[in-house]
Amino acid sequence: MQLQVLIEKSGLLCVDAYAGTSLLGMYGRHGCVDEALEIFECMPKKNLVSWNIMISVLGQMGYIEDCIFMFTELRMSPVGISESTFVSVLSCLKEVDIKYVKSASTCLAEKMFENAHVKDIVSWNTIIGGMENSDRPTKALHLFIKMCVIGLSPNETTLANVLHSCSRTQILSHGKCIHAKMIKKGFHSDVYTGRALVNFYAKCDKVQEAHICFDGITQKNLVSWNSLMVGYSNRGSSFTVVLLQEMIQSGYNPNEL
Predict the structure, then answer these.
(1) Measured between alpha carbons, how far is 173 from 22 in angstroms, rounded to an integer?
(2) What is the three-state SS of 79-127?
(3) Cα–Cα distance for residue pair 64/168, rounded to 1 Å
(4) Whether the Cβ atoms of residue 214 and residue 247 lie closer than 8 Å to each other
(5) Where are the alpha helices (DSSP H) in the chain?
(6) So what's the pLDDT on residue 257?
(7) Are 109 and 73 in contact (CB under 8 A)?
(8) What is d(CA 27, CA 160) in angstroms, rounded to the nearest whole number?
(9) Which of 201, 157, 202 is nearest to 179 (CA)?
(10) 3-state secondary structure at position 6
(11) What angle separates helix 191-203 from helix 156-169, to the nearest 10 degrees?
(12) Which of 106, 155, 182, 207 falls 20 to 30 Å from 71 in CA-CA distance?
């Protein structure tokens, strides 16, 4: 607060966007939405960074409508949008009620993505993850193929998101292709991608393959244990009890799943 008073008294807030943007960042890190909004409204000069910070703060604090409204204002301004804007708004939309996410937000996210001038791996992962969580999981696969065609290399997050979409659609051949890419890149033993593999094969009723992937995970967690047990349980196998005992002996406490 003392810093804000000093900046206002010195007139730095009116000189350029730098001082105001610094204050926005400070208030944003502490979750002070009202204070951040007050500074933002008082700034006579706003740059893309200050807009992005404000949009990100609103989204993180759950002010979904305000976040979208501010994004709309930014799009109509001469400042334009960036990848950071896109990621902030889509992350915000992913927290909205699932019925809303399945309709308007995915359309908005896709339009935002298409309008972005530069797309890096973060923005690709964000849109692919958004589609995977919506009612259009096959769109995530199409975007992944498009990303590979333009020469951008997928990382662990990309492959895990696409594999989750394959789990939802239960297209075994597509999932096996993603599995092959994971092996080629050495991602298959990672806890995040490994549990995605276990979940995929379990959902496709391929418990032996799921178990092989499970055994290959270097550091297992509760999610990977649960995914494998669900796979055996869906088949009515008593081996689920054996897995539960092994899980408890490994130091994991069972949850409601």
Answers:
(1) 50
(2) CCCCHHHHHHHHHHHCCCCHHHHHHHHHHHHHHHHHHCCCCCHHHHHHH
(3) 27
(4) no
(5) 2-10, 12-15, 17-29, 33-42, 48-60, 64-76, 83-93, 98-100, 106-115, 121-132, 137-149, 156-169, 172-185, 191-203, 207-216, 222-234, 239-249
(6) 54
(7) no
(8) 34
(9) 201
(10) helix
(11) 10
(12) 155
H or E element: which one contains 46? none
Higher pLDDT, 114 or 201: 201
Per residue in 26-56, pLDDT (tens digit) is 888 888 888 888 888 888 888 888 888 888 8
Residue the block writes with tokens 């930014």? 74
* SS3 letters across 55-87: HHHHHHCCCHHHHHHHHHHHHHCCCCCCHHHHH
Q: How far is the CA of 54 from the CAs of 47, 50, 83, 178, in angstroms?
A: 11, 6, 15, 37
Q: 11: left (phi > 0), else alpha (psi -120 to 50), else beta?
A: left
Question: Among 4-18, 190-204, 226-240, where is mean pLDDT lowest?
Answer: 4-18
Ramachandran angles phi, psi of 76, nearest 5°: -85, -10
Q: Give dist(CA 140, CA 217) in Å, integer.
A: 25
Distance of CA 99 to the CA centre of its chain: 18
Output the six-digit token pair for 188: 């298959």
Q: Is 50 helix (H, G, I), strand (E, B) or coil?
A: helix
Give the global pTM.
0.65
